[in-house]
Amino acid sequence: MADLHYQNEGYGKPSDDIVLEHVEKNVNLVTDSQMEATKVSPGNPFLPKYENKQNHGLQGSLVLPSPRKSLTAGTDTPTSSSFLKTRTNTFRTKATCHPKSHIVFLKTHKTASSTILNILYRYGESRNLTFALPLNKHSQLFYPFFFASHFVEGVSSRSVREFHIMCNHMRFRKSEVAKVMPQDTFYFSILRHPVAMMESIFIYYKSIPAFHKTHSLDEFLDTSRRNYNSSLANNHYAHNIMAFDFGFDNNVAADAEDLEERASMTIAAIERDFHLILISEYFDESMILLKNALCWSLEDVVSFKLNSRNERTRRTLLPHTAEKIKRWNALDWRIYLHFNTTFWHKVDSLVGQEQMKREISQLRELQAKLANTCLKDGGAVDPSQIKDAGLKPFQYGAAVIQGYNLNTHIDRQTKTKCQRFITPELQYTDHLYSKQFPELADKHRQEGRIAAPQHQRSGRAAMMGMAWAREAHHRQIIRHRFSNVKNQKASTGALLTHTEANNKTSVP
User: Fold this and answer.
1) CA dist 326 → 194, 200, 215, 289, 335 (Å)
2) According to DSSP H, which parts of 274-411 are helical?
3) What pTM, to 2 d.p., does this model score?
């Protein structure tokens, strides 16, 4: 197993384990008939514990419950305009529980992770915590290269004494993250059903080499064994992307002799390095688990969906397509099956079903009040309908990423609080960088003004255009600088290891 290199030696005792759209909200699994979902005992790792009997199932597949009904079906969500003044009693598992502020969130792709990022941004900003932000005002920690400590602004210059939260996209490498974050840091991440994830990725990353010549996801899956080239830039998005983000070699075939061994080692390493793994299909349950694990309040984890697609861009998949996806992403499938099961064990051990029901009901009530207070028309809209250009999410691929409009009648203080809930990732990252490193931010703005033609851009649009130009420029520098150092030791600052030889990619 020399080629399954996780950057850390040894595998310790598995630690504790543990967010938005249900698989059927992202992809319609069309079946010939309905089948009753089966509850599973704790010893069976192949089906979720809680099922909804009205759900469509797949023979031999993981059957997921209807969205947001696994524990609280039929719960009403009252509305009110007093959200920002509402406080509720929060459940604590121990009398000595204290809120955690040293946190690493491994932000995975197309898993509702942008919503969690917003939660962490709001929590940290409101408490003046320090973020481990990407160097040179980047939006990502030089993904898809393995993370290195000097990718964080303030590390090399030693201008930051303590980092509290790290949550931007990276390819995980624990030994390097530990150089930046304190020893008592809480690590968590999120997984999503590989079928729904693959449908989303195919739409969002349609321009990558693996996808751009194929007319459908089925066509790609039918030809992938012959035509998929793992060495081409960005193709890692198309194959076991969750394993890749966690720092593993994603190029393993479903019929590989060592697949089960690879999967077992991968799962053991994730359990060792992460305290909690969330499940996207059970977002509300995940937020309650996270709240209790971090000793936070319900107000700290309430949110709106961010970076979510318009329903018109979602595609219907047939059952045989779902099976092909699970076979193509065999490593991701095994990772998901395992942590889907341990997720429900965590619900039972950390919270309990009855307490979970009560807290989910409270969380949804808070969210309804928040929407009534903050949002015009109460929900998400297409980007063409967003009035404030600074609140428009970045659009990429064939997906239509929705956003929000604020109510016009709210006072300034309420508007500021509400705006934080709906600020897209790029704009919020830029805001925090400017707040945390004002002199460096001003320097980058000056450089951007020189580089960008003023007659083509104005206002917030200019800021975003310059940010993307700067991001592309720095990625080009990084690729050139490290293209010939893959055999150097990590201590010398090299980014590539032997597992990366086939993954010299860049984000579009």
Assistant:
1) 7, 14, 20, 27, 11
2) 283-294, 298-301, 319-328, 330-346, 353-374
3) 0.76
